[in-house]
Amino acid sequence: MGGRESTLVLLDENGIRCDGRKVDEPRRIMIKAGGLKNADGSAYIEFGDNKILVGVYGPRDVHPKHMSRTDTGILRVRYHMEPFSVSERKNPAPSRREIEISKVIKEALLPAVILDNFPRTAVDVFIEVLQADGGTRCAALAAASVALADAGIPMRDMVAACASGKVADTIVLDVNNEEDQAGQADMPIGYMPNLEKITLLQLDGVLNAEEFKKCVETGINGCKIVYELQKKALTDKYFKNGKDQ
Amino acid sequence: MDNRRKYVIPGDVITTGPFRPEQNVILEGNKIISTTIGVSEIYDDSAKVISLTAKYLPKINDLVIGKVISNTSLSWELDINSCYVGFLPASDVFGRDFSAHADELTSKLKAGDLVATRIANFDRTRDPLITIADRDLGKIDSGDLVKISPSKVPRLIGKRGTMIQTIETATNAVITIGQNGWVVVSCDNPEGLLKAKKAIQMVNEHAHVANLTDQVKDMLELKSES
Amino acid sequence: MTQSIIDDLKKSQILELLEQGKRIDGRALDEPRTLTVEIDAIPKANGSARVRLGDTEAVCGVKIQPDRPFPDMGDKGIFICTAELLPLSHPSVETGPPSPDVIELARVVDRGIRESHMVDISQLVIQQNKSVVGVFADIVVVDYDGNLFDACSYAATAAVLNSKMPKWEMKDDVPTLVEGAESDLPTTTIPVSITMAKIGDHIVVDPNSDEWAAMDCRITITTDSNENIVAMQKGGSGGFTLDEIIKCGDLSIKQGAQIRETLKHAAKGS
Fold first, then answer.
1. C15 touches C200 (CB < 8 A)
2. I need a surface site. Which of A89, B12, B94, B203 has the fewest CB within 10 A?
3. pLDDT given for residue B205 in this prediction
4. Peptide bond before A111: cis, by omega within 30 degrees of 0?
5. C148-161 and C100-115 are packed helices; what angle lies between their axes, rounded to 10 degrees?
6. Please, are residues B35 and B53 in contact by the beta-carbon 8 Å criterion?
7. Which residue range(s) make up the domain with C159?
8. Residue A195 with chain B: CB contacts under 8 Å
9. Which CATH number is C210's domain given?
10. Hey, is A138 helix, strand or coil?
């Protein structure tokens, strides 16, 4: 997109990043629970310039039948980017990247959902990225967790998510697109805030042992910030003015 | 809201200590944790959460309204607004020894028909078995289907049936409430029908309000309704 | 596609009401649902719109980028319109290759815009026979309540109407972006589709999902700003009489004009 400078100052002498944020400051985040008429549960998130919609169906019958399990329900996740969501138009067919991210998000949600009360069913999570700007998998995971709660799927905890990283030799919270491309490390994290367990963790880049520790801690702090917004999204829909919808 | 009842979301700790976990909570260590969005309730020795979002889970003897999806020569499959599909065997309608062809089944009930049924059996190893073998059950020939959240059904019925009686008396409508949140309303008078449907939606949206029965009564008594 | 089984009760209610000139949601027979159009819903795309027609919702993003021309059309740019029904829009939608219904949807929407010559593809040439501008309008349906043809068509039309086209110049044989030289995508007309369903002997405009499941057949007619009819598609297993088709043609012009105003005003940033 036109307008961004080619010689980017990632971190200036006042500790301000290329988009004006401080090192421990996430981008603007907004989460809304519900919104879709047909889905059993849904959520919409804006995380920086990321715009992601999630719809959940289930527990419901599994097709094809051979995929169902007799002892528990199964979780299926599809992370999909619209052709217009990225700078260069993307082919609608699922890419290997989307398939990997689908799996990683599924494995981040599995520890949280309780499906053994629903044998022979499936819970389907459909993630649609309408606009992408770095950190989509974390934003998607956070929204998916809200959509699952909205759908009434029993969960032992919410799953919050945020990425941390290393930019200009400094550990920062919530890496944006430019920082991801020009920076030194990017670490997306998914975290269950009450059970205090990490359920998604990936790393792209180079960190020494000290930096690694600091990066994980920073990411977890980011997850806690996101968790408050997930709570707010559900509270606004279900408990606002003591009114339930 | 007193501090024994709280709004909770999944993961929220309701209490710690020697409480027996009941509906919609789990025990992690010594913490009782909510697994759903709802209102927590703590009793002397147990704790539970009344869910605002959970889907209908079939219970034996529940009356549910279902919609026929398909049939084979041996049974019908019904959508009962649950995670599982309702299974109605042909023998329930035709008798034990009858062997029917598929088109004989469709002459009784076909795809799209609304049916008042009862859950005959349910354990999680099989789809819920339903029956229409009682006088008050069977195909629904007339009436409007209204869908509410299954968690609001107790409120629609009311204590000892007071809420539903209030609505039926004021509108002359006949209302069949499925435990699965599907409700059939029939009324000879179109104005009564509209009022009854409106009252049902009101309960669905304001179930938490304390004097709801009075509010519904007031709404029904308003003469000027379009 | 979205096969909701309609129950007989509902279908007979719909017919009974139609006999009295009414519809289940209170609309007049020739009245479409409320249409809301949000322009620039996807700011990073070259153009975009999020459209809500009743409870049906569709999002269209337009991407404009250099491309090679088609072999026999070196003096014309490229315009491609696609449509996808997302699995979150309705419980019966499956993932995987598109069904014939969805392919029909995409092709009908594409034809409506193409046949009207809305996008002037002769103005989209960077270097004849070598490099042209490709305009891709991709539509996704996020919520289903009947009449995807019109919802998708309005989303694409609104997105194209407010698209900004960058400028490219050939430098060393490669199309190179010229910074800060964006202009409005050149358009010549505003195509508007109107979809009508036949239920019994009645024609209704903009069927909702219940009416869609109850209908005998349907027709989508697209008109342009000069009130010419530029595209038509009949679907469904029933048949129309000649009089009904003529009536549909008239309805499509009349209702099309009103929708055109809505799309025009949305394009102006409201």
1. yes
2. B94
3. 84
4. no
5. 40
6. no
7. 33-267
8. 11, 28
9. 3.30.230.70
10. helix
Domain annotation covers residue C213: yes
What are the structure tokens assigned to C104, written together? Answer: 């029909």
In chain C, the number of structural domains is: 1
With contacts defined as CB-CB under 8 Å, which chain C residues touch A89? 63, 65, 136, 138
pLDDT at B126 over 90: no
Residue C12 domain-assigned (yes or no): no
Q: What is the pLDDT of residue C4?
A: 63
Q: What is the CATH number of domain A29-239?
A: 3.30.230.70
Compute mean pLDDT per 10 residues along chain C, 270 residues long, and list them: 66 92 92 96 97 97 96 94 96 91 96 94 93 97 97 98 95 93 94 97 96 95 96 95 97 97 75
Q: Where are the alpha helices (DSSP H) in chain C?
A: 8-19, 100-115, 148-161, 209-214, 242-267
Q: What is the pLDDT of residues C56-87, one digit of tens each?
A: 999 999 999 999 999 999 999 999 999 999 99
In a domain, C6, yes or no: no
Domain ranges of chain A: 29-239
What pLDDT, on a 0 to 100 scale, did the predictor assign at position A3? 43
Helix then strand then coil, in percent of chain C rounded to 5, is: 30, 35, 35
DSSP B142: S
Q: Collect all residues of chain C within an 8 Å Cβ-Cβ radius of residue A55.
A: 86-89, 142
- Other C-beta atoms closer than 10 Å to the C-beta of A89 total 22
Residue C95 sits at the chain A interface (C-beta within 8 Å):
yes
CA distance B11 to chain C (A): 26
pLDDT tens string B132-188: 999 899 999 888 889 999 989 999 998 899 999 999 999 999 999 999 999 999 998
Q: Which three-class secondary structure string do you get for A74-126?
A: EEEEEEEECCCCCCCCCCCCCCHHHHHHHHHHHHHHCCCECCCCCCCEEEEEE
Nearest to C8 among B69, B112, B144 (CB): B112
